[in-house]
Design a protein that fits this description.
The chain is of the alpha/beta class and 136 residues long. It has one domain: Response regulator (Rossmann fold), CATH 3.40.50.2300. 41% of the residues lie in helices and 18% in strands. The chain has 5 helices and 5 strands. It has a 5-stranded parallel sheet, sandwiched between helices. The chain is globular and about 35 Å long.
């Protein structure tokens, strides 16, 4: 078995309750080599996770039904290897980080996110995932 990871084998799941944001992310990242999945709510995200090997989850914090941290905690129990990034329109990242366990969230990012910054964060998360999996 190879000890390197092909980026085409990496799947990133984006979760946001605003369809326009998901559409924008899809356009922005269309040329990136990793596989992209999109979910408009936590239930759809959990369904996608049950059927797809996902490496990175990038979730909006404020969503109806289940916020990004609640979703992350559910995912962490079942899929502990997944790297989590939370994006929030709130500027109080300190409060968000205090409400999660240290190490559970790879990055907290405030909106609006600059496109190049988002690409860099995704690439850093993929690198961390590969390190954790021992495929780097």
């Amino acid at each position: 078995m190879s000890n390197t990871t092909n980026l085409a084998d990496i799947t990133v799941l984006f979760i946001d309750d605003e369809a326009d944001i998901l559409s924008s992310l899809n356009r922005l990242l269309r040329k990136e080599p990793y596989r992209k999945l999109f979910a408009e709510n936590a239930i759809t995200a959990l369904e996608l996770l049950a059927c797809n090997p996902v490496a990175i989850v990038i979730s909006d914090f404020n969503m109806p039904g289940m916020n990004g941290l609640e979703l992350m905690k559910r995912i962490k129990k079942r899929y502990p290897e997944i790297i989590h990034v939370i994006i929030s329109g709130h500027n109080n990242i300190e409060q968000l980080t205090e409400s999660s366990n240290p190490g559970d969230v790879f990055r907290f990012v405030t909106k609006p996110v600059e496109p190049e910054m988002l690409k860099n964060i995704i690439n850093e998360a993929i690198l961390q995932y590969c390190r954790d999996a021992g495929t780097l």
